[in-house]
Amino acid sequence: GGSADTAGVTSFDIAVSNASEPYSIPWLVGKDQGFFAKRGVTIGEIVPGKGGGTTVRNMLSGDLPMADVGFTSVLESSEAGTPLTVVAGATQSVYGLDFYTLAGNTRVQTINDVHKWAYTNPQSVTQALSYILPKVAGATQDIERVSSGGAGEGVALLEAGSVDVAVVPPSVVAKTGKFRVVVSSADHLKKFQQSVITTTPEFAERNPDTVKAVVAGYAEAVDFIRANPAKAAQLYADYIDIDVAAATTIVEKAISYDNWGAGFDAEAIQQAVDAQRLAMNRTDLKFCDLFQKTYLPANVPATLPAECEGTR
Amino acid sequence: MKTRSSVVPSYVRPTPRRVAGLPSPAWTVVLVIGTIAAVELYARSGAVSRLDLIPVSEMAARAIELLGDREFVVGALLRSVLLICVSFAASAVAGVAVAYAMARSRWMHRAVKPYVNVFYALPVFALYPVMVVMFGTGVLPIVLLATLFSVVIVISHALVGFESTPPIATKLARSLEMTRAQQLRKILLPAALPDILAGLKLGLAYAIIAVLATEFILATTGLGQVVNRAYNNFDTLDMYAGIVFVSVFALLANLALGAALSAFDWRRR
Amino acid sequence: MSARRSPGWVPPLVLAVALVAVWTVTAGLADSVVYPGPGEALRSLRSDITDSRFLGSVGDTARVLLLSYAAAIAAGAVTGMLLGLSAFWSRATLPVVYALNSVPKIVLYPIFLLFLGIGDLSRGSFAFVSGVLPMFLIMVEATAGVRRLHLKLSASLGMSRWSLLRRIVVPSVLPSLASGMRLCFGLTLIGLLLAEMFSGSSGLGYELLRNLSLARVENIIGQVLLIGVLALLPTLALQQLESRIRNRYEVSA
Amino acid sequence: MNTQTQAQRGTASTTTTPIVRVEGVEQHFGPVHALGPVDLTIGRGEFVSVVGPSGCGKSTLLEIIGALQDPARGRVEVDGAPLTGPRRRTAIVFQESATLPWRTVVDNVAFALEVRGVGRKERRDRARELVEIVGLGGFENHYPAQLSGGMRQRVAMARAMSMDPDLILADEPFGALDEQTRMLMAEELLRVVETIGCGVLFITHSIQEAVLLSDRVLVMGRRPGTFIDEVPVDLPRPRAHAVLAEPAATAAQERIWAQIRTEAEVAMRSER
Amino acid sequence: MNTQTQAQRGTASTTTTPIVRVEGVEQHFGPVHALGPVDLTIGRGEFVSVVGPSGCGKSTLLEIIGALQDPARGRVEVDGAPLTGPRRRTAIVFQESATLPWRTVVDNVAFALEVRGVGRKERRDRARELVEIVGLGGFENHYPAQLSGGMRQRVAMARAMSMDPDLILADEPFGALDEQTRMLMAEELLRVVETIGCGVLFITHSIQEAVLLSDRVLVMGRRPGTFIDEVPVDLPRPRAHAVLAEPAATAAQERIWAQIRTEAEVAMRSER
Ligand SMILES: Nc1ncnc2c1ncn2[C@@H]1O[C@H](COP(=O)(O)OP(=O)(O)OP(=O)(O)O)[C@@H](O)[C@H]1O
Ligand SMILES: Nc1ncnc2c1ncn2[C@@H]1O[C@H](COP(=O)(O)OP(=O)(O)OP(=O)(O)O)[C@@H](O)[C@H]1O
Ligand SMILES: [Mg+2]
Ligand SMILES: [Mg+2]
């Protein structure tokens, strides 16, 4: 890494939570196509976090000035008193966070049959989803929620028969026919701010140009993915070692859900905040002050939920 | 203190009872208190952010407060303690049994010994997900992992114990025509006991490490996870409180077991 | 009886084959995405070790391990020997170090991250601490255990402290140094892997955890095997060294 | 039987069956020819010592008679019958470390009885008696580590006595003691043996000790050990240390010393 | 100086300054009164042995004279001057394990010279000579673990000789050896000491050994050790084992034994 505190930082690693999932694709594309380099910023490595608040921790503790982080953990971190600024959107759908059961399990067919629901980590998006999805779908049965600790463990829980549904990473689904989707999250929630690009206010103030360059590079990468899904799939396949066909399926589906976007989308943000308020049972959660529109390029949307517009 | 200067080279002189008027245990206390005070002062000086370090007094206060927190005690503490106890008991029994088999059978000895020697270079923690698959989500995977991790140290110590049985005792056993069971009960086990006890003490330490490390990195419950979660949630106070708690807990557990076991150690009688 | 005639490597090999057989059969029965058999594990390992990023990780771990291990050995041995020479200060200090050593160090890792940041420095330091404490303790005990008779002999010859250190203490503690080196290698490696698993951007521990989030258990097992083999070689070499030194330096050889 | 042996004490029996008869016994450990062939007869109530350089096979011979080793060749008869396994009435006194450090004095003495299934109360009572006899009254509940070497050896002697032996095999029982304690223990052993009236095969490095204790001293040569001399000790019984000053005793000592001096010199150079 | 001491051998010097003069020396370890007060004079070239029960303070006395302990009270003079630290010409012979196991025979013998800064070649040549003298020729490059106890003790003796001593302090140097080796080593030591002609303070448990070697035997009583008897040994020199059969020798042995027997009996019961 480089040092975060000196002004004019233009070369650093980027922290991306759950980097092995599609979150990383715009970063891979941007690096590969030189979208960051041509704006004078060198992104070194993509440093993966384990989800939850870990990535924010890594960002703060490890000379990683900027990060693509789960929105829920940004909310939680800032509640705990960490100074953070959201400078751009990133992942704005819940594609990839579908809940699966074993193909052979005939008892569980729809969201109404789910009684034991596995999410990954506390305060992760999947936990929030386990609350908002039944609500949105109108499922009223009692649901016991368990934290698996990770995707692999979730699969293990499914196989062991201890839960009805769990998140199965697209890469695993692509590899075997053992899993059947029960809750396709993106079908229930059209928009959902899953991750955002964030940094510390201090870094943003000292290096506004760097931040703008990164955001703009990300935006261009998103456009590039839409135009060249095959190339993006190729990069992704290399990165996580799956075959290109599977990667292509993943990328194309992601595009169809409008998975990535550098801008702020009021509906997506509102949805995510609602989910978090529900999951954490905290109706007074504040979030408006986090967002800073100044670093966004002109060609992306920049709307915030209604409750924020009054305060600005 | 000295009436005349010593003629003896310093390194064979008797150990002084006191240095600067204090006996060695007092210096131990001085050392500990000094370190704690230094951290406390550093944390209070303002030279370090509260996100990074908090005063020790607050850590301790919060750690004590945690003891009154039902969720913490039942959900984390008791659970971890239970896991540690079960794994420790399992590795004690299995470890002594395997060591006995190795002491009895040359073949077993030669088959197992190389693995015992290199075991601790292996990252057994990585097998946790596999265990989850095989044994479900309950306590079993952690218990198995912790047992696996601690059994090996028990084996190697118990083996040393069995093998250091004085040959003369074995001869005595033969001259009295003792049966195998008699030899195990009356000669081998008591002869090996001090080494077995030393192994058990380490076994407990290893069981604690394994349970807490698994909880810390991989699982979603227990004492280890309390620290991890507090770290992730920027709850520095809780994080340090958890660390203090875990440290004191491990320390007390080791001391208590050490004291309990040394009552059986005939070498100390 | 027949075991006496078979060469030394036969029994461990038989045991290994038996374990692999059990693994194969249970994996076949379990038929699980997350419980692969040996074949899959080896296949995935083969593809891993042709991957340059993975090789980079191996290199990273090896580099950090080497540095922190060397530092742990050197620091532990020198400080341990110096402290061991003073019975009074050993008695005053050792309880604290033993206490420290009995704390599961992994829960202290967040502190390393807070103060040293993510990266080589924090994981290297953590590995160092995992190795240096036991090394230190072993060396203090070994130095305290230098035969009193040898000290008296040296005193009767009017030897200086430095000469004593060089001619008596160092040779006396060499066997312990060797077994400490063997022991601490494993402990340093485990410390490093745990640190990498908890928070890293590279290294074998990181690779393990990355595969975990991808639910690629066959890669995990393959890599555990690889780590085992990689750790085995230095361990065996250190074991060899230890038995040589013991044969040569110990009284009752 | 006790009265009979008492009567014969001091005169090697030729009319009744001897307690030990060894004929042509040899031992090999792989390529190492460790012992023999040796012939040996010990009469009932006779005290026979064996001295010889280190490694000559003394312990090997004793273990063969104690059925702890099978000889490669030759015959061993104890009490008129060929050996079939460890005998109940053969007591072996090993060196001092043969006390079990995890047992108290009483429990050490009671050990042989315990192994033979004697009830708890009975064996403890018997053990207490024996503890008194060997002069350890008051130390019943001490552990061996709390005793001196000489006291530990008394424990071993009491254990041997508990077996009501007609043959005692002693393998350098006082080897680890200092000379003064050793002499005291030797006198003690004499008293015990004279009370029980059993045959004794006694292995030692100390010529003084051998002369003080024995009816006959056998000198063994270097490996493979065979007997190179047999020295009768014609001294009155009961004996005490003072008999060593008598001419017969010093003569015996000098004769034995002359026999094994060369052997010892060579042994010191080759042995490790 | 050598010729002078040679001439005086066997007669305790009264006209020249003695090599050792100890006056009113006492030692305490915390509450334990370990030694004294004792007075002791050793003449140049005189061989003095000390015998006494275990724990009476023999080693303590020797270490005080060797400057390995500071006495709590009293004066120690060696060669006419108060002790200021370990002396170059005082050689201490410890028990057998005082050889350094990581050094070969030659390097063990050369150790004292090495510490004193004698050059590599010179000290090795000297060491080789001494190795020959003590009869270890051919074992120069062996390690102590490859030698028998007696051979190790010869190494220690050669090392002591390398220091060109005028005083040898020996603390049970043969305590760990078996009796036969022990006697051989005692004869060896006699030869060495008679060659060098130095004063010797020799501590032993073996009365035979003390009588065989010494001009005077001092008997120490139980802790706190003081001398309870002084037994002169009037036997011609050079001596060998056979002198022990002479009436003067047996008489000395019996006198010493009588003196310490009670002490040894009590010691055996109280010591651990
Ligand atoms: N189990 C064994 N395997 C191989 N060699 C053996 C074994 N037991 C004894 N020996 C060898 O047989 C020889 C005689 O041994 P033994 O123990 O009988 O001698 P010893 O006369 O009792 O000697 P010491 O006086 O040292 O006790 C020795 O050379 C010894 O090395
Ligand atoms: N460093 C010490 N601290 C405390 N007590 C000691 C120390 N050294 C010796 N003693 C005690 O002082 C007494 C005399 O000890 P010393 O070693 O001089 O006896 P010794 O006559 O040499 O005995 P042994 O014949 O067993 O060698 C003993 O009671 C011993 O326990
Ligand atoms: Mg023997
Ligand atoms: Mg002594």
From TrEMBL, chain B:
- Domain of life from the UniProt record: Bacteria
Q: Where is the ABC transmembrane type-1 domain?
A: 77-261
Q: Output the SUPFAM superfamilies linked to this UniProt entry.
A: MetI-like (SSF161098)
Query: InterPro entries annotated for this entry?
Result: MetI-like (IPR000515), MetI-like_sf (IPR035906)
Q: Where, by residue number, does the polypeptide cross the bilayer?
A: 21-43, 81-103, 115-136, 142-162, 204-227, 239-264
- Keyword Heme annotated: no
* Pfam families reported in the protein's UniProt record: BPD_transp_1
Q: Which PROSITE patterns match?
A: ABC_TM1
The main location class comes to: membrane
Where is this chain's protein located in or outside the cell? Cell membrane
Task: For this UniProt record, give its keywords in alphabetical order, as a comma-separated list.
Answer: Cell membrane, Membrane, Transmembrane, Transmembrane helix, Transport
Gene3D superfamilies named among the record's database cross-references = MetI-like (1.10.3720.10)
Membrane topology designation: Multi-pass membrane protein
Q: Does the keyword Transcription regulation apply?
A: no
PANTHER family in UniProt? ABC TRANSPORTER PERMEASE PROTEIN MJ0413-RELATED, ALKANE SULFONATE ABC TRANSPORTER-RELATED, MEMBRANE SUBUNIT
The entry sums up its family as follows: Belongs to the binding-protein-dependent transport system permease family.
Q: What is this protein called?
A: ABC transporter permease
UniProtKB/TrEMBL annotation, chain C:
Pfam families xrefs: BPD_transp_1 (PF00528)
Q: Which residues cross the membrane?
A: 66-89, 96-119, 125-147, 168-195, 220-238
Keyword Acetylation among record annotations: no
Q: Does the keyword section mention Transport?
A: yes
Q: Which Gene3D superfamilies match?
A: MetI-like (1.10.3720.10)
* Keyword annotations of the record: Cell membrane, Membrane, Transmembrane, Transmembrane helix, Transport
Question: Which segments constitute the ABC transmembrane type-1 domain?
Answer: 58-242
PROSITE patterns xrefs: ABC_TM1
| Organism for this UniProt entry | Amycolatopsis tucumanensis
Return the protein name: ABC transporter permease subunit
The entry's family comment says:
Belongs to the binding-protein-dependent transport system permease family.
Record's bilayer topology term:
Multi-pass membrane protein
Can you tell which superkingdom this protein's organism belongs to?
Answer: Bacteria
Q: Where in the cell is it found?
A: Cell membrane
From TrEMBL, chains D, E:
Q: Which SMART domains match?
A: AAA
An example Pfam family from this entry, by short name, is ABC_tran
Report the domain of life of the source organism: Bacteria
Q: Which UniProt keywords apply?
A: ATP-binding, Nucleotide-binding, Transport
Gene Ontology molecular function: any one: ATP binding
- Domain (ABC transporter) spans 20-247
Among Gene3D superfamilies, the record links this protein to: P-loop containing nucleotide triphosphate hydrolases (3.40.50.300)
Asked if Nucleotide-binding is a keyword of the record, the answer is: yes
Entries under SUPFAM superfamilies matching the protein? P-loop containing nucleoside triphosphate hydrolases
InterPro entries registered for this protein in UniProt: AAA+_ATPase, ABC_transporter-like_ATP-bd, ABC_transporter-like_CS, ABC_transporter_ATP-bind, P-loop_NTPase
Entry's PANTHER family?
ALIPHATIC SULFONATES IMPORT ATP-BINDING PROTEIN SSUB, TAURINE IMPORT ATP-BINDING PROTEIN-RELATED
Query: Under what name is this protein listed?
Result: ABC transporter ATP-binding protein
Q: Which organism is it from?
A: Amycolatopsis tucumanensis
